[in-house]
Amino acid sequence: MPDASRRSRRLIFPSRPGPIPFSQIGILAHTAAKHALVGLTKQLSQAFGPSGNTCNVVAPGFVRSNPAPERQWNAYGSDDQKWLVESIHVRRLGTAADIAHAVLFLVGDKAGWISDQILSMDGGRS
């Protein structure tokens, strides 16, 4: 049986998605929806890939790009803001431009062989 366990782990680790590295209490629907995107991406990739279409997910980390994350950022206070930035490998928050560059690449001709991927864009936090 140990051999079967190793085989199972090999199958699980390569498909481990990066978009939900941290779980928090009270965001059940949000977490379920994010996980659903992984399955939806796989199904869309299989269904539409044969006709040359690709499907990928961009999973951004903390980006102060609209009022909701801005309110969240302000509610943290300076100590928690500092902790959040220091928990990101590149030691900065993402920007809307960071996300836009990835999206433009993925929808462009040079990404025609990239499909069924979850691109975790969180500065290495996950």
- One letter per element, helices H and strands E, the order comes to HHEHHE
> Looking at this structure, what is the CATH superfamily?
NAD(P)-binding Rossmann-like Domain
In the CATH hierarchy, what is the class? Answer: Alpha Beta
Strand order of the largest sheet: 1-2
Distance between the termini: 32 Å
Indicate the overall shape: globular
Q: Helical element count? A: 4
In total, the number of domains comes to 1
Structural class, from helix and strand content?
mainly alpha
Unreliable stretches, pLDDT < 50, 5 or more residues? 1-21
Strand content bin: 5-15%
The largest β sheet comes out as:
2 strands, parallel
Helix share, percent: 40-55%
CATH topology assignment: Rossmann fold
The appropriate CATH architecture is: 3-Layer(aba) Sandwich
Work out the number of β strands. 2
Q: What is the averaged pLDDT score?
A: 81
- Radius of gyration, in Å, reads 17 Å
Organism: Microcystis aeruginosa DA14
Protein name: SDR family NAD(P)-dependent oxidoreductase
Family: Belongs to the short-chain dehydrogenases/reductases (SDR) family.
